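sanity check this chain:
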Amino acid sequence: MKAIPVSEAERIHQLDVIRGFALFGIFFVNMPTFLQPALFLPEDGLPADHSMLDVWIRLFFNMFVQTKFYTIFSFLFGAGFYLFMSRAEAKGHRVSMLYMRRLSGLFLIGVIHFLFLWYGDILHTYALTGLILLLYYRKRDMQVQGWAWFWLLSLQLLYAMTLLLPSEPDVHRAIADQRLAQKAIHVYTSGNWGDWMQFRLVNEFPLVLANEWFAIWSVLPLFLFGFSFARLGLFQQTRLFLPAIKRLWWLLLMISCVLVVMIPLLQFEVVRPPASAFVSVQVFVGWSGLSLCAFYICSLLLLYENERARKLLLPLAPVGRMALTNYLLQTIVSVVAARWLQLYGEASMAMGLLLCLIVFSLQVAASKWWLNRFRYGPAEWLWRCFTYATLMPIRKKRELPVKNS
């Protein structure tokens, strides 16, 4: 097989920058689940002894972070799917077989991450959804976009229906969750590895797996949009699309302003639909996630075309090139810190935010250092070796100085 690495000339650096930006936001979203038993907390996701600062940070997350970044990552996965398939096809590979091995490798990494590190893994979901994506590779652009809109709008219609359904608080469920939250804090701060695994198998995994179909439904349309736009050349020839991107940017800004403003109005019950405040907030968090996802992507594409802005964004590119490694490292560092520093069940939203800023800043520096010496991140290298069934070179060749004769 011609397992030739992508050259610098072939890389689409905008994608690396956007991927790095998305990883930053995903870390913010995931941090509370690393530090608190989020599955068993009250509807607002805050522990009983939270402060007002935690309330405002949670509100800020709901307005500008929650659901806004996994959507970007999902869109980019679809774009990466097209780029991988088209490049493999151009090099004479059997693309379906190669892609299946690529998905198998991602699924294996995701399952290990899911079982032994953290229940919130998204990699196995991406691998499963990627199987469906393969069905659309030969379809025309209009068909792909039609199916993307179908899956997207059908899910949003389901969301809209929940706004009309009144809901009463389940007191018995709240008491049970409170007990599980206390048990989780005890297990993850004082228990051994066996205690961790037993608690997760009995209490966490069933909840996550029961919603797997919903997670696949959520990311599939974003995969399809990313695939479709990459095939149209959005990232390869961004300048051709700039007028359309600018018009879309203004439209998305107006839509996002309306959706985002609704979140605090619903949370503080200034606006009261039939559904509970929690359900209503979650619906608008999801809707604003879609509009702001597209708004953030358009903003980054426009900024990248400006020379000054590009220089500010480029430090994110190495993080994006090592997205898989950095995603896994965020989990490892957070889980270890929560255990060793006795943060689990104790850390506030503000402390989690500070930890994110520190760790991500280190990742920016470490990613640049690593890629100056190696072709891929460690996890990316393992994934590529598995995909191509061969041991790939990882070190960059040192250029010998040219001697003047």
About this structure: The radius of gyration is 22 Å.
